[in-house]
Amino acid sequence: MIKVMSLMKRKEGMPFDEFRNWLLNEHVAFARNLPGLRKYTANALVKENPDAPYDGITELFFDSEAAMAEAFGTDAGKAAGGDAASHCSNRFRMVCEEKLQF
User: Fold this and answer.
1) In 10 A of CB 29, how many CB atoms?
2) C-alpha 18: how far from its chain's center?
3) Residue 4: closest CA among 102, 89, 53, 71
4) Rounded to whole angstroms, how far apart are CA atoms 84 and 77?
5) E-strand spans in the chain?
6) 10 Å Cβ neighbour count for 99?
């Protein structure tokens, strides 16, 4: 299984509470439309931390890198990316293989 972690910093001038609400409640609607997505997790800082390089992280699980690429290439994938770009000043995507240790 492939996990895509997107580390996100909110857009300059966007209040932290607004970003947190967007990430935890609004952006998930875009993930629901991604074909082949097996699991989606949104993680946001509990409270604002100006020194933190990121304000939130999403985790998207796919069966393979091919399934991930196919999902992101769809209209739904492009819409999700556009939504994230409009709310973030910086995003870093990590494609990982997760191994549960305990």
Assistant:
1) 11
2) 16
3) 71
4) 11
5) 2-10, 39-44, 56-62, 88-97
6) 6
Q: Which residue has the tokens 């875009």?
A: 30
What is the DSSP-derived secondary structure letter of residue 87? H
Categorize the per-residue pLDDT at 102 as very low, low, confident or very high, splitting at 50, 70 and 90. confident
**How many C-beta atoms lie closer than 10 Å to residue 57's C-beta?**
17
Contact 54, 9 (CB under 8 A): yes
Q: Give per-residue pLDDT as tens, 33-48.
A: 999 999 999 999 999 9
The bridge status of strand 39-44 relative to strand 56-62 is antiparallel
Residue pointed to by tokens 């020194």: 51
CATH architecture of 2-97: 2-Layer Sandwich (3.30)
Report phi then psi at 90, rounded to 5: -150, 135
| Cβ neighbours, 10 Å, residue 43 | 15
pTM: predicted TM-score of the whole model, two decimal places: 0.91
The Cα–Cα gap between 74 and 80 comes to 10
